[in-house]
Amino acid sequence: GLHTTSTADVASIRFTISASDMSTITRTVSYSGGTVSESFNVPNGSNRRFLVEALNSSGSVIYNGETTTNLNGSAVTLGIALSAVTTAQLYVLVSNADSDNVSVIDPNTLTVQTTLNCSSLGDISCYEPRNLAISHAGTLAYIPFRHSDNVIKSHPDVPDFSLEISDDGFNEPYAVAFTADDSEAWVVNKQGGGSSTGSVSIIDTSTQSVTDTIDDICFSSPEGIAIANGKAYVANRGDGTVCVVNVASRTVSTTISTGGSPRYAVATPNGNFVYVSTDSSSAGIKKIRTSDDTITATIAVRGRNLAVMPDGTKVYVATQGNTIEVINVSNNSYSTITFTGAYSIYGVAILSDSSYGFATDEDRDVVYVFNPSTDTVVTTGGSPVEISVGSTPRAIAAQ
Q1: d(CA 124, CA 82)
Q2: Contact 364, 358 (CB under 8 A)
Q3: What percent of the chain has pLDDT over 90?
Q4: Which of 154, 301, 308, 347 would disulfide-bridge 360, Cβ 3.0–4.6 Å?
């Protein structure tokens, strides 16, 4: 059993149990005061990491604590002390596909703080940044550069480009997702080796090196990846499917047919659902239940990149038009945010404190701002706020 006591600011408690040789166990329970006691069946083995996080009503982690133990078949009771989490610095990263750089937006001023280029790392090439990702802790980001076959490590809270990660397995690296404990980053490659037309490279975040490559015939020009419930969901643009990969065993467990051309994948914070966008409203946005890898809903919306509200209540869909569609997770209904003057909204991201949302317009080279609490566009002088960035901004990530 795990026991925790906390304060009145806490709305829920999230438990995460992980290890390299087991599927991650995640459970979130509501908190209304007093003591919380939860029991888990965990596979025997060494170095089982038990992480407990206390979240406020916005879904932000305000207390956490963890311990690691070995399990040999006997029941154990763990007491985990929680300490206050230092408020993370908020920032937004934008991949500018045609200027080969990354814009860093300061959410406090809604301006570009700096632009990151690979020239800071010396004589290396970086061409076409794609679907970057920020770690759950908010202190590490990886940016895949599709046409130079490398991944750049960044400390976005600095901000900087600090290291090039290269590997023979990188072949048009396109998207990144972190495991629940941030120990690994999974990178999908649009092209692959062997018999496949795609692959997955796995980066150990402690060594900053690729430790595994998964090369399976299931992959078909993948462009998106989400990790939830101990599984990686790889969105295959090439054949209208999602490959489900067991994180611990590195093997494909099943294939889900979506239709259309899947483009992006995102998981809800509790890991219960993964949403996959496709390029047509007929194929729609697929809602996949991770407990049994079943599509439970199809939302008739054409989509590109996606983002989830930190409290898990809404999913935001960039439509490559002048709108974002907002899906209600509880009932699958959706509403629309319209950006006057926009041409092609490609990427969307929400700050960890839910204060602002951001949307890239790949045709106009700007980032729009919206309020995710009210789902309204942020304006100045009656017109939408526009933050000028690099050329062809597509993917965007926020802390």
Answers
A1: 43
A2: no
A3: 75
A4: 347
312-334 per-residue burial string, b: 16 or more CB within 10 A, e: under 16: bbbbbbbbbebbbbbbebeeeeb
Backbone angles phi, psi at 57, to 5 degrees: -65, -15
The model's pLDDT over 30-68, given as tens digits with 9 standing for 90+, comes to 888 877 888 999 999 988 889 888 888 877 778 888 888
Give the chain's residues under pLDDT 70: 1-8, 86-88, 193-196
User: How far is 172 from 161, CA to CA, in rounded Å?
Assistant: 20
pTM of the model: 0.82
Three-point CA angle 50, 53, 57, nearest 5°:
155
Copy the structure tokens of residue 271.
């890991």
The C-alpha angle with vertex 182 and arms to 115 and 214, in degrees rounded to 5, equals 95
Helices (H) and strands (E) in the chain, counts: 0, 39
∠ CA 199-205-209, nearest 5°, is 60
With H, G, I as helix, E, B as strand and everything else as coil, classify residue 374: coil
Q: Report how far apart, in Å, the C-alpha atoms of 151 and of each of 88, 198, 207, 319, 389 are.
A: 24, 16, 14, 27, 21
Q: Cα–Cα distance between 5 and 110 in angstroms, integer?
A: 38
Amino acid occupying residue 88: A
- pLDDT value for 18: 85
User: How long, in residues, is the chain?
Assistant: 399
Classify the phi-psi angles of 246: left when phi > 0, otherwise alpha if psi is within -120 to 50, otherwise beta: beta
User: Per the structure block, which two tokens stand in for 296?
Assistant: 């439970």
From the list 61, 288, 92, 80, the residue with the least C-alpha distance to 180 is 61
Rg (CA), the chain: 20
Whole-number Å distance between alpha carbons of 387 and 324: 17
Token look-up 């991201």 returns 349
How, if at all, do strands 209-214 and 199-204 pair? Answer: antiparallel
CB 260 within 8 A of CB 282: yes
- Amino acid identity, position 365: D
Strand-pair category, 78-79 with 2-5: parallel
SS3 of 226-283: EEECCEEEEEECCCCEEEEEECCCCEEEEEEECCCCCCEEEECCCCCEEEEECCCCCC
